[in-house]
Design a protein that fits this description.
Elements (H helix, E strand, L loop, with lengths): L25 H10 L10 H8 L8 H8 L7 H18 L3 H12 L4
Helix pairs in contact: 4-5
Bound molecules: zinc ion.
Length: about 110
Amino acid sequence: MSADSKSTFCTVPGCGRPHRARGYCRTHYARWRASGDARPEVPIGAVRRAQAAEPTPVVAHPVALKRRLRGLPPVSRHERLLALADLAERAGVEGWDARRFEREQAKVLGGRQ
Ligand SMILES: [Zn+2]
């Protein structure tokens, strides 16, 4: 047991959760470990709520990414999903019309139609 465990509660004002390590509760300790800053001004739960409000980005599988960078057609469902998400984003940014979008979509789905 270290000197830390003498305090039974988190040292962040207003937190009141049980002490875990370094004077922090589990959540504040996790923040401190992750970033070096317990961010006492950010209420617990606010980060998770903010993350939940944002859509989860589609992350490329390394193999899928490699194939995409080489301009190879997607081979798995995952890759096609990724490519379509990519397509929709580009279409929105570049303002494609429906025909352009369908053409690009056919390229992505190519061979499976
Ligand atoms: Zn705390």
